[in-house]
Specification:
Layout (H helix, E strand, L loop, with lengths): L2 E12 L24 H4 L10 H13 L7 E2 L2 E4 L9 E4 L10 E7 L17 E14 L3 E3 L8 E3 L6 E7 L6 H17 L12 E11 L9 E6 L2 H20 L7 E6 L4 E7 L9 E2 L6 E2 L2 H10 L4 H12 L3 H7 L3 H16 L13 H33 L11 H12 L5 H12 L5 H8 L7 H14 L1 H8 L6 H11 L6 H12 L2
Parallel strand pairs: 11-12
Antiparallel strand pairs: 1-9, 1-10, 2-15, 3-4, 3-14, 5-6, 6-9, 7-8, 10-11, 12-13
Helix pairs in contact: 2-5, 3-4, 6-7, 8-9, 8-10, 10-11, 13-15, 13-16, 15-16
């Protein structure tokens, strides 16, 4: 039997406010345990929650970014359950009237591999795009943290995190593979950082996902019984956990068993999920409106003000890169995977375009239109060159050294300087890699390195012709082979010529002159 995987995600993103959602205690990470927990966080008798306005602004900003409907009136409720690090015995959250309602969606790009044994859609050899519907997003407070290390037979409780503001983002069950789930999680992670509402630090717990996974026979509309995998704080672990859970459920059903709705945890050391507890329903939590908090009412003016603060969003910027620069969808998707990378690319292209001037272009009989077309083509070529270097050499160097683009030792203006010298044929692409390596090590700007190391490309036709003549004289047998029709020998001559010029010969000029000389 063929099975279809159905996945929905619930993501907790910690809003990067300075203070907690219902108290004035700090939210900074890394403080000594229980040093950032005030009387409200400890639920001492007589204390009352006071809502943090900044949390609403960030939640509304997210809703607008995904195109969702913002509820003009939302209500806080108490979700009742006992846990050692939940001092009140309930969590303040939103259920019936969340701040962000339905209608939102997140556009994702999925690579060629879709995982879970699922076939990619037809014609998706280079990946495909898809919209994931956002069901809702609501604000709530986080619980504290139970500490099991360094305690012999006991558990410690750190309440520093208790009361930190969260936005829980819930999707429809629209994902059909682990690859789609990871693509969505990465896109969401990028978006909350892009619009400045969450630092996205997964190691610190600022961004963590719960995956609801079920399987059903292919072609059946009714959803299967789902299991929730809690607290996935790594894209790699998310993929592995979903893959394991899919196999487990399929094998269980095919062996005559039944999937039980439950909450499970992923153990990365054993690469397996294991049962944590039976899955609760909403009525188990006895929700009711919090009597200490008034409904949150949002005006149209407030929404307009928040909307004005939004930066250009990833999908819009990706579309601009494709239309203005002629970049393929894959390049645009990679470059807009995070805002810092997109801004770096934009700055590099702008610096490159400043070096393009109509006076450097050939004259066209049709006049200014041809000149403008040529300039536009040159600008697109410059953008594609920048994209290739940023996605390729620069990203490889950053990954190798474990750096983010913001910490790149080569600034966008410096990279533009290097690419300019490739464009004007001062250096070849091969020599550019040597210059790039020197720039990475802090040896200076591209021009200074080229001058100091004597790396300028040889474009003197006389010098190149002399090299060609010497090679042809030294290899008469190969010359005869080429002239007898064995054109593959051409590469042999190119290699010798580049070696003789120490890689400095202008490749295009070398090829042209070599063909002329070999043709006799």
């Amino acid at each position: 039997m063929q099975w279809e995987v159905v996945i929905g995600l619930e993501t907790h993103a910690q809003l990067n406010t300075v203070t907690k959602i219902f108290s004035g205690a700090a939210t900074a990470y890394g403080a000594e345990p229980n040093t950032q927990a005030c009387a409200v966080d400890l639920a001492l008798p007589g204390v009352l929650p006071v809502f943090n306005r900044a949390a609403a602004e960030k939640a509304v900003k997210f809703g607008l970014a995904v195109g969702a409907r913002i509820n003009r009136k939302s209500v806080f409720e108490r979700k009742n359950y006992f846990y050692p690090d939940l001092p009140k015995g309930y969590q303040i959250t939103q259920l019936e009237l969340p701040i962000v309602a339905e209608g939102g969606k997140l556009h994702i790009h999925v690579g060629p591999s879709t995982g879970s044994g699922q076939a990619a859609p037809a014609g998706s050899g280079q990946g495909y795009e898809k919209d994931i519907r956002i069901t809702r997003a609501h604000m709530e407070e986080d619980a504290g943290k139970s500490l099991h290390e360094d305690f012999h037979g006991m558990t410690g409780v750190d309440l520093n995190r208790a009361g930190t503001p969260l936005i829980e983002i819930v999707t429809e069950p629209d994902m059909r593979s682990s690859a789609e789930a990871v693509a969505y999680a990465k896109a969401l992670h990028s978006l909350v950082r892009w619009i400045g509402i969450c630092d996205g630090n997964m190691q610190e717990g600022s961004f963590r996902c719960d995956a609801n996974v079920s399987v059903r026979p292919m072609g059946v509309e009714k959803l299967g019984t789902r299991c929730e995998i809690k607290n996935l704080n790594s894209f790699k672990f998310m993929e592995k956990a979903i893959e394991y859970e899919v196999r487990r459920q399929i094998e269980l059903i095919e062996d005559g068993g039944k999937v039980v709705q439950e909450t499970r945890l992923y153990d990365p050391d054993k690469d397996e999920t294991r049962s944590m507890r039976s899955k609760e329903e909403a009525n188990d939590y006895r929700y009711f409106p919090d009597p200490d908090l008034l409904p949150l009412v949002i005006s149209e003016r407030y929404i307009e003000d928040v909307l004005a603060q939004l930066p250009e969003l990833p999908q819009a910027m990706s579309a601009r890169f494709m239309s203005a620069y002629g970049l393929p969808a894959y390049d645009a998707a990679v470059l807009t995977s995070n805002k810092e990378l997109a801004d770096y690319f934009d700055a590099t292209v702008n610096a490159l375009r400043e070096t393009l001037s109509p006076s450097s272009l050939p004259e066209y009989p049709e006049g200014h239109k041809g000149e403008r077309d040529a300039e536009a083509t040159q600008a697109k070529n410059a953008a594609k060159l920048a994209a290739n270097w940023i996605i390729g050499d620069l990203s490889a160097a950053l990954n190798k050294h474990g750096l983010d683009i913001a910490a790149s030792p080569i600034a966008s203006a410096q990279l533009a300087g290097l690419l300019t010298r490739i464009q004007d044929s001062t250096i070849s692409g091969k020599i550019a890699k040597e210059v790039f390596a020197a720039m990475w090590e802090g040896e200076g700007e591209a021009d200074a390195i080229i001058e100091t190391k004597g790396l300028k490309q040889v474009s003197d036709s006389g010098a190149i012709e002399k090299i060609i003549a010497e090679i042809m004289d030294a290899n008469p047998a190969q010359v005869a082979e080429y002239r007898s029709g064995k054109e593959k020998v051409f590469g042999f001559f190119v290699g010798l010529a580049m070696k003789a010029s120490k890689g400095k010969a202008n490749p295009a000029q070398l090829n042209e002159l070599l063909k002329q000389k070999l043709a006799g």
